[in-house]
Amino acid sequence: MSIKEGEKVEIRPESITEAPGSIQKGDVDLKNNIEVLTPPDGGRGWFVILGSFLVSFYKKNKTILKRRLTYFICNSWGVFLRQYKQIYPGQMAQLSWIGSICVALFFILGPINQLVIRTMGYRYMLITGTILCTAALILASFAKEVWHLFLTQGLLFGVGASFVWFPCIGAPQQWFNHHRGLAVGLAMSGSGIGGLVVSNICQAAIENIGYRWALRIVGIMCFALIGSATLLVRPFGTIQQTGGSAKGVISWYLFKNPRFTILFIHGLITTFGYMTPFFLLPSHAEALNLDPWVGTNLSAIMSAVNAGARICTGYMGDKFGRFNSLFICTFLAGVCCLAIWVNATNEATIWVFSVLYGFFGGGYIALFPTVQPQVVGLENIAPAVGLLYFTNLFGYMFGTPIASAIINRFTPPDYKYAAVWAGCMVIGGALFAGWLRVTQAGFKLVRV
User: Fold this and answer.
1) Percent helix, strand, coil in the chain (nearest 5)?
2) Which CB contacts under 8 angstroms, 24+ apart, belong to 6-9?
3) DSSP annotation of 254
4) DSSP calls for 21-72
5) What is the pLDDT of residues 311-356, one digit of tens each?
6) pTM for the whole thing?
7) Is the N or C terminus of the chain more exposed, i.e. has fewer CB atoms within 10 Å?
8) What residue stretches are annotated with the Major facilitator superfamily (MFS) profile domain (predicted)?
9) Is 80 within 8 Å of 107 (Cβ atoms)?
């Protein structure tokens, strides 16, 4: 369908009720001749969700930072780290940064996401990511020095994962409208389930055949899972329909949309505190002299709760409004830090906090992408996703080190100040989510 000057443009009613203000007269660019997209809410979209699930299943094991160590590296990385600190004694500080660099690079393509998609398309981005991630792990199995690990498990894997992440977070948003919350929640729930499974596979392999073969096995799993996603994940519509209208490399024009700017700030602030409990809670349990089983399993339990929460809160967003749900989940996650984690001095309190924070934190992760199409429209989703998730780079790189530095200013280390830091950051982000909700529907108690 071509849109010519003077012709009527039919806009579906749900586009107005679910995204008030996102489609305005000035937003229809008659010069671009772009066909309006209508997400099918199913069909091939469910295969896209499956592919994204497989990627997030694996991704979790490279992004949850280590337990019981200063900067906390990911579940599977943490398993290997225990081996590395024995092989490379006295180099813990250098090893600690490998996981952080890897996490940060997951989002490195963000500002140029639109350009990369235009140049390569989803299929070749995923193929590139599959090759780079698999090669990173296989090459790491031959590492002899710490800098070899920097180049492989840190730099190469992080860049490869960036080629995988953006197609698999962008595609589910494009294929669904009414059921977008549930669809994105299902796609992202793979990360919680993966956190329970792959790290245990790594540990079993290390104990039986050594860490080098464990790396190779994980590399083969990476090839199989991301390779499957390459066959399943496809965009809905063409890059001309979803790639925005930027004339330069970076889509600065998006910041002319006040709602996008608010959402950008929301993501930037929240990520500085969001992962801190996941990173620091196991070591907090150890500092309280709790049973070692508690610290060992906290991350696993939080991953399981987080996975279920992403599905439940995604569905809740579809029923009660995604902007409403995003604000509520983010705000309550921050309240949990200030009201429960600050006062956590025994095992019962630690468990209560881990379950509640895992649930509301999972809600934030699932709902953040579901509101993006309603803020910018599907026609701008590719550049918007790139810029919005680029904010994660700063929060994930520096948020927990700041919290760790605050903790270590006291003797003995006092974790309640890390809880205050995390709570303030998350609630600060929630206030912007609330502001965004008000810009959509004012202060009326309506579904939005």
Assistant:
1) 75, 0, 25
2) 9/36
3) G
4) TTS-GGG--TTTTPPPP---SSTTHHHHHHHHHHHHHHHGGGTSPPSSSSS-
5) 899 989 999 999 999 999 999 999 999 999 999 989 899 999 999 9
6) 0.80
7) N
8) 259-448
9) no
- Identity of the residue numbered 291: D
- pLDDT mean over 156-169: 89
Supply the DSSP string of 127-148, one letter for each residue.
HHHHHHHHHHHHHHTT--SHHH
d(CA 54, CA 174): 18
Specify the length of the chain in residues: 448
For residues 366 and 173, the answer to whether their CB atoms sit within 8 Å is: no
* Paired tokens of 257: 């949309």
Angle at 316 between CA 310 and CA 318, to 5 degrees: 105
Supply the pLDDT for residue 33: 40
| Of 114-128, 133-147, 166-180, 233-247, the least confident | 233-247
CA distance 289 to 93: 25
Look up residue 437 and give its amino acid: R
Place of tokens 């660099």: 101
Average pLDDT score over residue span 243-260: 84
